[in-house]
Amino acid sequence: MTDAKTGKTLTLKKKTVAAGDNPEGERRKRAGGRARQVAQLDRQREQQRSMTPDPRPSSLPQPTTGTGTGTGTGTGTTPAPRKPSAERNRYPGEPIPERQPNSYAEQDAFRSKPGARRAAATPRAEIFPVFTPCPQGLEDALVAEMQALGFDDAVPARAGCRFHTDWTGILRANLYSRLATRVLVEVAYGPVQHEDDILDLALDTPWERWFGAEQTLRVDTSAIRSPMQSLQYCNLRVKDGICDRLRDREGERPSIDTVRPDARVHLFLTEDSATLYLDTSGESLFKRGWRMEKGEAPLRENLAAGILALSGWDPSQALMDPFCGSGTILIEGAWIALGVPAGIWRPFGFERLRNHDARHWRDLKDEARSRIAPRLESPIVGYDLDPSAIEAAKSNLDRAWLTPGTIRFEVGDARSAPPAADSGWLVTNPPYGERLPSEQDTGLWREWAQNLKQNYSDWNVSIISSDMDLPKALRLKPLRRYPLYNGALDCRLFSFEMVAAGYRQK
Ligand SMILES: C[S@@+](CC[C@H](N)C(=O)[O-])C[C@H]1O[C@@H](n2cnc3c(N)ncnc32)[C@H](O)[C@@H]1O
């Protein structure tokens, strides 16, 4: 069992105050500051380890140093020698190795499938353009996270961010990003006016580097203002181009599997261009591998991590969610505070590609595991009125490899829930207005606000809601409001600072 109040294992630099008087720049820094800080902490630990000699045999590809391209791997990550699993550092609740979904045996079995070919190893210095999509509203926070992971040229893009990196950087982005939904490698781009141009683009792309007939394939298509008549037909043109090329070169074509494909390709169309992306993530990155119990209207894990980043939560401080549902915000918070990489327990699409170097990947993961802190520095506490939601949260906690004491989940009413510490962060996703009858709704907000004003002085409060009038119902004026999308739902993250006399206004 973990005693959440003991131990001083996590040291974070104090949040830097943005200089400058540009309000937009200031907002950007604030939006991404916490994500940057958390990712920087991970990177510092990684850099410290890179001072030790590389134990890998010289026959393995060696890390590049100082490419000066901002690829995120210039530090030359140095993996720790692999320990037997029983000796590896564990975080609370990690004791059952067979629960690991991403078993090496399964991968080895896959690679020894008849017909499996190994592509030439991807040259360590080869740089790829990368696009990482994210929930809308988290772009700046994602850029900050990617820059902190070492992808220095990361810039915001529509619902995502772009940067350049080598293959190791692509593995690291998948492993560490808490905010990205996928890591897509741009493999082809060209002007298109007709569906046949898409076929030609797919025919000219060297897919055989990544996959062949021994893999199954899925293609997805999305578009903005594309004049093409049928996106389904465009999708088919990509599949035809890929399959024709592979059949011509290797004698066989991959079969299509839309449910559990080995390789995924995304086509993105604009008014006059097409981009083909190789998806290195497989399943969306918000699927960390721990959620089975969904509860009522759960947040996606990367949105929960994004909200924590925008709230400015300092992971060494107390965290509360008084409407915790299945516990998404708090479980993400515990992983952040302990330094558990978001993708440590899940499989990735790149593991099924021809160029996959399983040994290098194991080294990266072992090294990431070795930096997980054994315990939290401050309490993390959740309440929900619904006992079945608390049961769901506890099951999710267990699946997230955390011991029961890591997060205190209790049945309780937000209107009377006591603060978990003298100060801290309350980050929550309360029930949406339409789920509550209006009188109950007004009563709930008034009584909850009263509890906050009376008992939560020195707490930072961040609330995500699709109800734009929520601050009015709470009779609190937000210091900041961040536009965010929860799926298709237009939301705001409202931030308040409670002070002894009530709350701080703008
Ligand atoms: C939108 S859901 C939260 C979902 C959660 N973020 C997740 O990812 O699972 C809102 C939760 O508030 C709970 N709730 C409603 N009224 C409450 C109250 N007065 N006190 C505590 N919880 C309450 C509901 O039972 C529901 O689980």
Spatial ordering of strands, largest sheet: 2-3-1-4-8-7-5-6
**Distance between the terminal alpha carbons, to the nearest Å?**
42 Å
Mean pLDDT: 81
Low-confidence stretches: 1-30, 49-112
Name of the CATH homologous superfamily of one domain: Vaccinia Virus protein VP39
Shape designation:
elongated
SSE arrangement, N to C: HHEHEEHEHEHEEEHEHHEHEEHEHEEE
CATH class of one domain: Alpha Beta
- The CATH architecture of one domain can be named as 3-Layer(aba) Sandwich
Radius of gyration using CA atoms only: 24 Å
Query: How many strands in all?
Result: 16
Multimerization state: single chain
> What is the percentage of strand-forming residues?
15-25%
Largest sheet composition: 8 strands, mixed
What does this protein structure show overall?
By secondary structure, this protein is α/β, with parallel strands linked by helices. It has a domain at 301-340 and 373-504: Vaccinia Virus protein VP39 (Rossmann fold). The chain has helices spanning 23-49, 104-111, 139-148, 167-176, 195-203, 231-250, 301-311, 328-338, 358-369, 387-399, 438-455, 470-474, and strands at residues 128-133, 155-157, 160-165, 184-191, 216-223, 255-256, 263-269, 273-279, 318-321, 380-384, 408-411, 424-428, 459-465, 480-486, 489-499, 502-504. The strands form two sheets. An eight-stranded mixed beta sheet has the order 2-3-1-4-8-7-5-6. Strands 9, 10, 11, 12, 13, 14, 15 and 16 form an eight-stranded mixed beta sheet that branches. Strand 5 (216-223), helix 6 and strand 6 form a beta-alpha-beta unit. Helix 1 (23-49) crosses helix 7 (301-311) and helix 5 (195-203) packs parallel to helix 6. The radius of gyration is 24 Å and the shape is elongated. The two termini are 42 Å apart.
